């Protein structure tokens, strides 16, 4: 089984998001949208070629329906379809690379959108998504497509990665400066973190890139130690997570961490 977790620069137009979810067909398993980030995460599960077909249908619908012009939101982005990562679950990762490369070529040839490759695995010496974001159109040229972003569609990063858990912590009575310092203190090989002002609250937004080593509970406790339990409102899962990661946390903490059995890959696969 393979997973594709498309990040799209639209989080407010509910009707448009419903159209995109419908376009994703039978592979569609979860939609998380955030109006402040102005961003949505579509989780698709399946086997090639059905997954590839549904991923292309979703990308095509997004490019037809959405535009980057006038877009604003707290989350960084450089394209209408911002990130397209493929993940192999109990399958040969070389097939995930095939999915990545074929999807990338199709995007560049069909929509004339610049495409950047990335890969993220332990021990893999390839550029990561954060490196692409920092360097794109500066000292890093696109791997495919034109050398400048599309005025309406931007660019896209298409990658292959290991299991990742996207997870946020909502804080109250913590200003943006302190939130950003907390995020910086959390960063290490296993954790990527940014601090955002959401208007009335702040958020530590995390990508847990080694969730079997450092999961939501450990990050939650670290933030509590830095700002105090009374200022940590709740945890929020973005998308889905493997059941094995969930089982690392005590069931008594699932609600606090924003986790549940219903939000696991295994539950949605069934």
Word description of this protein:
By secondary structure, this protein is an alpha+beta fold. The protein has two domains: about 1-160, Formiminotransferase-cyclodeaminase, Chain B, domain 1; about 165-270, Formiminotransferase, C-terminal subdomain (Alpha-Beta Plaits, 2-Layer Sandwich). Helix content is about 35%, strand content about 25%. It contains nine helices and ten strands. A six-stranded mixed sheet has the order 2-3-1-4-6-5. The longest helix is centred in the middle third of the chain and has 19 residues, at about 95-110.
How many H/I helices? 9
Cα-to-Cα separation, first versus last residue: 12 Å
Reported CATH architecture of the largest domain = 2-Layer Sandwich
Spatial ordering of strands, largest sheet:
2-3-1-4-6-5
Largest sheet entry: 6 strands, mixed
CATH topology of the largest domain: Formiminotransferase-cyclodeaminase, Chain B, domain 1
Which bin fits the share of residues in helices? Answer: 25-40%
Enumerate the spans where pLDDT stays under 50 for 5 or more consecutive residues: none
Overall mean pLDDT stands at: 94
Which class do the helix and strand fractions yield?
Answer: alpha+beta
| CATH class bucket of the largest domain | Alpha Beta
Shape: globular
At the fourth level of CATH, the homologous superfamily of the largest domain is: Formiminotransferase, N-terminal subdomain
Please give the domain count: 2
Run of helices and strands: EHEEHEHEHEEHEEHEHHH
Q: Tell me the total number of β-strands.
A: 10
* Radius of gyration (Å): 18 Å
Strand percentage, roughly?
25-35%
């Amino acid at each position: 089984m393979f997973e594709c977790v498309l990040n799209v620069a639209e989080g407010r137009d509910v009707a448009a998001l419903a159209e995109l979810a419908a376009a994703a067909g039978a592979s569609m398993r979860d939609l998380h949208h955030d109006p402040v980030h102005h961003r949505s995460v579509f989780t698709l599960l399946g086997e090639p070629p059905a997954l590839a077909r549904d991923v292309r249908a979703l990308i095509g619908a997004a490019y037809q329906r959405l535009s980057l012009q006038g877009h604003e939101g707290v989350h960084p982005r450089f394209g209408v379809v911002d990130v397209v990562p493929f993940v192999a679950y109990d399958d040969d990762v070389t097939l995930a690379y095939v999915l990545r490369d074929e999807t990338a070529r199709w995007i560049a040839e069909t929509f004339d959108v610049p495409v950047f490759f990335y890969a993220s695995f332990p021990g893999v010496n390839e550029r990561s998504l954060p490196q692409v974001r920092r360097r794109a159109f500066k000292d890093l040229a696109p791997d495919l497509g034109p050398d400048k972003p599309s005025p309406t569609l931007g660019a896209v990063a298409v990658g292959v990665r290991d299991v990742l858990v996207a997870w946020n912590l909502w804080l109250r009575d913590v200003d943006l400066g302190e939130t950003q310092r907390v995020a910086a203190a959390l960063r290490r090989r296993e954790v990527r973190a940014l601090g955002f002002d959401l208007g009335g609250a702040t958020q530590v937004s995390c990508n847990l890139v080694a969730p079997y080593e450092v999961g939501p509970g450990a990050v939650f406790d670290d933030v509590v130690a830095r700002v105090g339990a009374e200022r940590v409102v709740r945890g929020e899962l973005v998308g889905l997570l493997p059941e094995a990661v969930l089982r690392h946390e005590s069931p008594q903490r699932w609600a606090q961490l924003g986790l549940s059995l219903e939000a696991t890959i295994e539950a949605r696969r069934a």
